[in-house]
Design goal:
14% of the residues lie in helices and 18% in strands. By secondary structure, the protein is α+β, with helices and mostly antiparallel strands. It has 2 domains: 41 residues, no CATH class; 40 residues, no CATH class. The strands form 2 sheets. It has a 3-stranded antiparallel β-sheet. A 3-stranded antiparallel β-sheet has the order 4-5-6, with no helix packed on it. The termini are far apart.
């Protein structure tokens, strides 16, 4: 009974694998369930949704990794931060924090 309903809806078998043509483009879609009525192929879905946009790269702030976890950090412009929170009253009163280069691990 399932086979006749599947074939009635436009499905067919090739080497025992259920196929059905896309209802938009007409391209064959393989490995479909015999319970379905129609199918939309991947090219038709991509045509409707559109090509995904490229990921944007993050703009670097020029501050070292983990600067917002430091008790006190002064950037090159003289902005003072205590635990990542800017202290505008102290701007320009302290010298910039010296950053130690990261230790390289050998593998």
């Amino acid at each position: 009974m399932k086979k006749s309903t599947f074939e009635k809806n436009g499905g067919y078998f090739v080497n025992g694998v259920a196929h059905m043509d896309c209802k938009i483009t007409g391209e064959p879609v393989a490995n479909v369930s015999t319970d379905i009525v129609s199918v939309i192929g991947s090219k038709a879905v991509q045509g409707r949704v559109g090509i995904p946009k490229e990921k944007t790269t993050r703009v670097k702030s020029g501050r070292p990794a983990g600067w917002h976890f430091m008790n006190e950090f002064v950037d090159k412009d003289g902005n003072v931060f205590y635990k990542g929170v800017e202290q505008p009253k102290l701007k320009g009163t302290l010298s910039p924090t010296k950053i130690k280069p990261a230790k390289k691990t050998s593998r």
